Amino acid sequence: MNLHMREPVVETLGVLETAALLRELTAGLIAVDDFDEALTALVRIARDAVPGVSWCGFTALRPGEPAGVAASDARLAGLDDLRHGPDSPAMDAIRRREMVLCEDLGRERRWPDWTPRARELGVRGVISAPVDVDEQVIGAINLYAGAPEVLTTQHQLTAMLLAEHAGLLLAAVRDRERRAARAGELDPSVLGDGVVGQAIGVIMTQRGCPAEEALEVLRSAASSLSIPLREVAERLVSTVSRPRDS
């Protein structure tokens, strides 16, 4: 079963083209604060910009969550999904922390379960490059060719630069995502009933500290207990409001 793909080309990106790719990638991800949305943009940009690449996917490993997957073509998403088995180019790249290249899947023996599925979908070559995002997220960007001998060792330099740049941009997205989540905790709708403000006031009184420090105390407690900020505030206010025995 072959999917629609561009005509194969063998040239790789030159210096100017590589700079343009990284610039487009930066522009596409710089304002995004959702990690999954960023992955979707990344695979689309890489597919369109790298010669010889017919499809692109990303495999992301996050602690306590299923492996994340993004694919430029939904029909190929299973090739990046570790639920179909850990024996794959992406997992090899992640485990070994180095680039994995197969120029022709017709001669490939490393992934006996993965390779037939890939070939059935029209994939004939693959490069997987490890991507380090932050201390909690690692992954691999996977470049797929629809013809053999299209992806060569020359493409590895482009893939390496793409992976390094993507790691930096995705780390920034993760940071914006965390900051947005914190800001959401202070949404006016949350503060409307005053419980968070009351809790901040209690901590300020008890510790003699400013409001910013009191808020950080609440946030730290919420993180340690793995419960929402508002619930921590409610528990604190309830405790200090409880009448004491005479």
UniProtKB/TrEMBL annotation:
The keyword Cytoplasm does not apply. InterPro entries: ANTAR, GAF, GAF-like_dom_sf, GAF_ANTAR, WH-like_DNA-bd_sf. Gene3D superfamilies: 3.30.450.40, Winged helix-like DNA-binding domain superfamily/Winged helix DNA-binding domain. PROSITE patterns: ANTAR (PS50921). Keywords: Transcription, Transcription regulation. Residues 176-237 form the ANTAR domain. The keyword Transcription regulation applies. Coiled coil: none annotated. SUPFAM superfamilies: GAF domain-like. GO terms for molecular function: RNA binding. This is Antitermination regulator.
